What we know:
Layout: E1 2-6, H1 10-21, E2 25-29, E3 42-44, E4 47-49, H2 61-73, E5 76-78, E6 83-87, E7 90-93, E8 105-107, H3 113-118, E9 123-125, E10 128-136, E11 139-146, E12 149-158, E13 160-163, H4 167-173, H5 178-184, E14 189-199, E15 209-213, E16 217-222, E17 233-239, H6 241-246, H7 252-267, E18 275-286, E19 295-297, E20 302-304, H8 319-333
Parallel strand pairs: 1-2, 1-13, 2-9, 6-15, 13-20
Antiparallel strand pairs: 3-4, 5-8, 6-7, 10-11, 11-12, 14-17, 14-18, 15-16, 16-17, 19-20
Helix pairs in contact: 1-8, 4-5
Amino acid sequence: MHIAIIGSGLAGLTCARQLQAQGNTVVVYEKSGDVSGRMSTRYTELGGFDHGAQYFTATSDPFKKEVAGWRKAGWAAPWNGKLVSLDHGVAKAVGRSADGATQRLVAVPGMSAVGQQLAQQLEVRTEHLVRRVESHGRQWLLAVQSETVPIDATAGPFDAVIVAVPADQAIPLLGAAPKFAKQAARTRSAPCWALMLGFHDSLGLGYDGAWVHGSRLAWIARDASKPQRRPGEHWVGHASKEWSIEHLEDDPERAREKLLKAFHEATGSQVQPIYAAAHRWRHAQAVQPLPGDCLWDARLRIGACGDWFEAGLEGSGRIENAYLSGLALAAAVH
C-alpha cells in the first residue's frame, strides 16, 4: 500500500519503519523543520538543549528490546545524574527512578538523535503542514501547506493515512472518521513552557536535576550531566502544567523572564545567564490517556497513534507510550 503518515515523532517514525519493512511505500509529513517531535534538542552556539522530553524508561518487553538495540547502535545511554526534590530552595535526594529500579536513559548526543536515526531510509517531507485529509473514492488526498507554495498543494492519492500527532491536532485530521475524532476529543493535551539557560561558569548546585515544588517551575535539569553532551553549564526548566495553562498566550520574552526569576528562586543562585530562551509546547502531554494502544479502521484505512494512548502502561505522554502505540498500529495495518 501507499501510506501517508502525518507527524514524525517517535510514534509516527516507529509506525513508518514497521510499515515500510512490511513492503509498503510510506511518506511521512512533518510540519516542523526536523523530525523527533517532543523528543527535541535545540542547538545553539553554546551547544544543545533538550527542551522537550528529558529522559525515558523502558518497562515493557517490546520497548526494552528496542532500547537495547538503540544502546547497541550508540543512539542511547544511561543517565545517572543526581536528582533531588526542591521545596522552597531545600534539596532532598530522591531515588534513581519513581520505582527505585527502572533506569533512566537519554538519546545521545541529544534527545533528537533517536528520531533522526529512525528517519534514515524513510521519505520524510519536513516543513509540510497537513491541513486536511480528504476522501478520494477508496483512497485519500492530503491538503498540504508549505512555505514554498502559496496555496495548499494536494498530495496523494494514498491507500491509507496514519495520524501521529497530539490528540488536539488529530481531531480535525480525523474528520473523515467521526468516531475516531470523537475519541481523540476525549483526551486533550496540557501545554508546557520550557526554559533554556546557558551560564559562563558552573553554578555549583550539587545536583543534576530536580522536581521543583512551590514554584512556577516543576522540573529543572543540567543538560551537560547527560552522556555525550557538550561541556558547559546548560540548564533546562519545565513550567508546571497550571502555570503553563494560565500563561499559554504570553509572548516568549515575558515567559522567559518569569521563569528565569523562578529558576533563581528555586536554586538560590542569582548568577545571570549568558543565554536565555523560552519555548512553548502547546501540546506537551495528554491529560487523560485513551484506553488501548491505537485507532485503526480497516475499512476506511485510516488510523491514529501517539503517546496519548495507554498502550498497556500506567499514565501517558511518555516515550514508551509513543513507541508501543506506533508499533501496535503498524501491526493492525498489516
